[in-house]
Structures are given as C-alpha cells and as structure tokens.
C-alpha cells in the first residue's frame, strides 16, 4: 500500500485529491496538512511513501518543507512531489534543487495523478526527458559554480558519461544506445552515480551535473 501525505492550504483541493487517491486499492492518504510545518511533523509521524506538497503555503512554504524532508535521514523514504498552479517556474526549479522528486500542476488529469504517485513511490523522479530539457533551459540563464568537493572525483569515467547524458535529458534507454551498453547497465551507472553524489533522484542529478561544471549549459 502506498501511503500519501497531502500538504496544501486549500481544503477543497485536499478533499478532491483524497477522494481520488483513496478510491484506489493500492493507495491510501495517511494524513493531511494545511501548511508546511504541519506537513513536516506529519511526515515524521506517519512516514508516507509520497508527500504531495503545495509550493506556496503559510507558515512554511513547499520549498522549505522539501528541503527539511530531504535533509532528514529518517525521512529518506519520503518522496516529495511539488504541486503548483503555474507549471514550471522559479519556485519549481528551487524545489527540485531542494530535493523534490518532481512536480505536478494542480489541474492534472486524474489518471496522470495516480500514475505519478505510483512512479514517485517507486523512487523514480517525475522528470520525463522533455521536463528535464525544460529544467536545463531554466538553468542556462544561471551561472555555473564549479568547485571542489562535488563528489565527481568518486565517479568512474562511465558513470560521469552517464550523468552527463542524464543532464542532457536522455532516458536510460537512450543512454544505453549512446554508450553502447544495455539499459540495465545504463540504469546501474546512473544509480551508482546518484549514490556517490548523494542525489535523491534524477532531478537532483541534473542540477548537480550543472552546478559541478560536469556539463556546461548551451545558450
């Protein structure tokens, strides 16, 4: 059973999401919160698999909530998915940097919401290659800040190559073709790189690749 925490200051939205999610045999809403501080406390208490977190809330916003969940070792199994009214914007970018697994717009189709919750619960990032390319597009306007201690020195050459391809928006199957390896091996390279770099998911891996200077944005 996939446990979901709903964190949003709009009771009507929470009620709609709860009704949809609880109707599924494999999903259960374990708690609701009206702000980020309450959501963080409930995450620690209920340990959900997925936390659907609104990006703009009173008391503590979604970015800070995400950051605190990502920084807490006891909450390593909680996958944060950001809810937004606006699609990809500055807030979403900052939430991904803070450790969110991905984002959803609030007017998402019901079947897409259910699929996204299941994807997040598996530990996969909600960043399709097209979304990754949008993330890259946002980052093009930001300065790269390479520096020591990024962890890149711990990667093998093949792992570095795989990370660079992830940062270009390629999926594992595409990485496999580019590197002339099997999809399973490509996934292994990516997963090992995530562990070595301390990235929670592909979203953070993309950000780290640019911030470390491994990949340079093309303007």
From TrEMBL:
Q: Could you tell me the Gene Ontology terms of the biological process aspect for this record?
A: phosphorelay signal transduction system; regulation of DNA-templated transcription
Keyword annotations: DNA-binding, Phosphoprotein, Transcription, Transcription regulation
Q: Which SUPFAM superfamilies match?
A: C-terminal effector domain of the bipartite response regulators (SSF46894), CheY-like (SSF52172)
The protein's name: DNA-binding response regulator
- Where's the HTH luxR-type domain? 148-213
Q: Which residues carry this modification: 4-aspartylphosphate?
A: 54
DNA-binding is among the record's keywords: yes
Q: Domain named Response regulatory: which ranges?
A: 3-121
SMART domains xref list: HTH_LUXR, REC
**Recorded GO MF terms:** DNA binding
Gene3D superfamilies tied to this protein: 3.40.50.2300
